[in-house]
Automatic annotation (TrEMBL):
UniProt lineage: Bacteria, Pseudomonadati, Pseudomonadota, Betaproteobacteria, Burkholderiales
Protein name: GTPase Era
Protein's UniProt keywords contain Methyltransferase: no
Gene3D superfamilies: 3.30.300.20, P-loop containing nucleotide triphosphate hydrolases
Species of the source: Pusillimonas noertemannii
Gene transcribed to yield this protein: era
Family designation: Belongs to the TRAFAC class TrmE-Era-EngA-EngB-Septin-like GTPase superfamily. Era GTPase family.
Region annotation G1: where it falls in the sequence: 14-21
Molecular functions (GO terms): GTP binding; GTPase activity; ribosomal small subunit binding; small ribosomal subunit rRNA binding
Amino acid sequence: MSTPFRCGFVAIVGRPNVGKSTLANALIGSKISIVSRKAQTTRHRIHGILTREHEQFVFVDTPGFQTRHGGAMNRMMNRVVTQALADVDVVLHVVEAGKWSAGDEQLLPLLPKTGNTILVVNKVDAIKDKNAMFPFVSKIMALHPYSAVVPVSAARDIQLDNLLAEIASRLPEGEPMFEADSLTDRPVRFIAAELLREKIFRLVGDELPYGCTVVIEQWEETEAGARVAACILIEREGHRPILLGAGGGHMKRIASEARQDMQELLGKPVHLEVYIKVRKGWSDREGSLRELGYD
Ligand SMILES: Nc1nc2c(ncn2[C@@H]2O[C@H](COP(=O)(O)OP(=O)(O)OP(=O)(O)O)[C@@H](O)[C@H]2O)c(=O)[nH]1
């Protein structure tokens, strides 16, 4: 009898900084999902697809569970997490080896009570005393009915094949849903905004408070090239000099690196203009968030 093909949705959840983006990139093998050392860089949901001989894994990379602020942004993000989890075949709950915190604890009620939740203990490469892992894992396993536990290192490619095998065995039988080479089902405009946001977080993420987002305002694409106008929305006028840097140096570098990535993505020349606009208090107005496409 031939091996049946399996295909299904996989969600990756966990508190900020546990390595969700790194894991998604390592499993899918694409650069589309954004990695940054700053918390909350994956505020949008991103799909990535891995197709193998007998399986297609459709990854839903959900946002970091946010507990710092009690505002509209937080409520909306929790809703996004719950929605994403309600609709998938396998949930990967990623935690950091040896580090269980309040953020992990608060995510537990959002995990589906039934179904396939795999506890993924990431960053095992950073643990010196391997014996300490057993009590750590046992304690977490007692908190939720996980169906499996897999210790991994997303960054060092340790046990990732084993994780894929655990996921694969839990996917429903079915035909592939996407073309074998599709990396994401997000529109290219969205990815372009993510690329720009990644550069901002990398360069000034430490100084810039969380309330900053990117909106693509103009997108004209022909065979020969693309003209893109992007707007960076900041919360306060005082954030503008941080973004600009001395002599506008930060902004130039952000725009130039984002433009190069966009060219690579589209495979043609890109003309990119970037504006900065102040939008006071946007992160705490649900209406504004909907407008920006977060709902
Ligand atoms: N030592 C070690 N570090 C890792 C590993 N995986 C990820 N990291 C690091 O952990 C940090 C956070 O990784 P991300 O992938 O951005 O984490 P995330 O969970 O997506 O973070 P948010 O977007 O904030 O939710 C980065 O500095 C990674 O390089 C790992 O296997 N081992």
